[in-house]
Design brief:
2 domains, single chain, Beta-Lactamase, 3-stranded antiparallel sheet, globular, Arc Repressor Mutant, subunit A, alpha+beta
């Protein structure tokens, strides 16, 4: 495996940091701390990014924000990936019809990165924020990992130092298999899940966010928080319903999370919402394949 170019890696770190907090500007000192680099090398990387339009510098405040070249790259990416364009349009339609919220994230190596949010209550949506990166380890990412190959699932179970004994690992495999059988993940509002969700939503400094979220996920892991059975007449305190989007190779790439239920709902309602979500995902994949 080729050694990564340090300057290239540092440039991507800078962009990731700023994409994860789009509502703030960053000083050079902020970015030095966030990327754990020295002042001279970070300044050199930032200067190149500014020169190429990937960052903009405010001379009055001496702060930086993302530049228009990244918007152009995003527009081009949407054309390269017809799935994403179709998914955004379909998500807008589903949230308008149901009054719920949708959060879309994408698998990026051993992380999930937030891609988009939809619906009137998008700020309250479950899932990661746009631009935020979260470690891909149990229970995070189960929506896409449930359909991954055995090797990916083995790595998922072992990732991040989570000390799962053999029975716990077997239970996690059973829970992933249950997601595949249902065709979706239904996650309940438990105390542990609520703590993880809160940690993901809090706006830590970027250098702390991954570490704190990762530590909390590891410390609170206790399964995937899904009900063993869903009875139509039952009542459930539901956090979200998640379903995957596969690319043309059959690779589970996007996780689509439907949330904002506002309290307990019936099992019949869960099944109805899940049917709408999975049908939307199927339609998106078909439209992408036809493009």
């Amino acid at each position: 495996m080729a050694r990564p170019a340090l300057s290239g890696s540092r440039a991507l770190q800078v962009i990731d940091v700023m994409a994860g907090a789009p509502d703030r500007a960053f000083t050079l000192s902020d970015l030095v701390r966030a990327t754990e680099s020295n002042f001279a090398s970070c300044h050199a990387v930032i200067s190149i990014l500014v020169a190429r339009g990937y960052l903009l510098r405010d001379d009055a405040t001496k702060t930086y924000r993302l530049g228009p070249a990244l918007f152009a790259a995003g527009q081009a990416m949407a054309k390269h990936d017809p799935l994403l364009s179709a998914l955004r349009s379909a998500s807008d339609a589903l949230t308008e019809r149901t009054g719920l919220s949708i959060s879309v994230s994408a698998r990026a190596g051993d992380e999930l990165v937030g891609v988009s949010r939809h619906g009137q209550n998008r700020l309250l949506a479950q899932g990661i924020r746009v631009g935020q990166r979260v470690p891909l380890k149990p229970p995070i990412g189960a929506t896409v990992l449930a359909w991954s190959c055995d090797e990916d699932i083995d790595n998922y179970i072992a990732r991040g130092g989570i000390a799962l004994d053999a029975p716990e690992a077997a239970q996690l495999r059973d829970e992933l298999a249950a997601i595949r059988r249902r065709g979706y993940l239904a996650t309940l509002n438990t105390d542990s899940y609520a703590a993880i969700s809160k940690a993901m939503a809090q706006r830590y400094a970027e250098e702390d966010r991954k570490a704190r979220a990762g530590q909390l996920i590891s410390g609170l892991y206790g399964g995937l928080f899904q009900p063993e059975t869903i009875e139509p007449a039952g009542s459930y305190d539901l956090a979200f319903i998640g379903a995957p989007i596969f690319d043309r190779r059959g690779y589970p790439l996007y996780s689509v999370v439907l949330s904002g239920f506002g309290g307990r709902i019936s099992g019949a309602a869960i099944e109805d919402y899940a049917a709408q979500l999975t049908r939307m995902c199927t339609d998106v994949m078909r439209s992408g394949a036809a493009t």
